[in-house]
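ok trying this again, last paste got cut off
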Amino acid sequence: MSEMDFVDWSRAQFALTAIYHFLFVPLTLGLSFIIAIMETIYVKTGDKAWLEITKFWLKLFGINFAIGVATGIIMEFEFGTNWANYSWFVGDIFGAPLAIEGLLAFFMESTFFAIMFFGWDKVSKKFHLFSTWLVAIGSNLSALWILIANGWMQYPIGMKFNPDTARMEMQNFFEVALNPLGITKFLHTVTSGYTISALFVIGISAWFLIQKRHILLAKKSIVVASAFGLITSAFLLLSGDESAYLAAQKQPMKLAAMEGLYKGEKNAGLVAAGILNPAKKLGDESDAFLLEIKVPYALGIMANRELNSFTPGIND
């Protein structure tokens, strides 16, 4: 087996783990806040119906949370098993946000998750509510530090190469922690999760209404999830635009590859849907797409936020 075969298998294993992990994580990020809002209504009103609603969605949250944690731990081990040289080379920088995530966010959410799930008759209503909010905050803090690590990989700043050790070393923690790509990716990822969780709650509640089962639970859940989803989906548009703009400014090659843009264009259009040309090679004159539906000017405006701007392609 060649060295490249090992690399490809490592990529495939890590990608499979990441894909499976990310089926569950976005749902828990938003569902934790929806549950916290529902429990807050229960504590404020004393209405037992809200208690039953909270417990119902908590069961679904618990299943997704457990699978998300299990797959997330496997991913962290794969940094050392699949990408040992990378972890050694940039461990001083890349390891810091992952360590903070584990010691601060993950420990907090896992500790208070036990109280939230098993402590209904063991602690006061207010302390239980406090625990539920801390689980929601801790889950999202986990996403923050992981995406700060990811943002640093996209746009590595705040570090310096040490020729004596042949390793990268952190020079400025705040540059790493406040990396614009990391913060933007965090905001866009969590708001995506909030929208998904709102649709999840609305979808199941709508099914109950169609089946004429649990009518009160379904109606009340739809009210909370609809309001939550409406607010977060509006912010999702803003964070998505900022994420695309920063990719164009900091990672122009990545944007060109994502869009199949080989030759730079002025007022470049955005390919909304298309079939890539598998025979296309760098430098040749064949079309990048066999079939495409393009929105004129859209890519140039998204990438540069102005008309008559140049968007570089892969050849550039």
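PB: full thing came through this time. DSSP finds ten helices and six strands in the chain.
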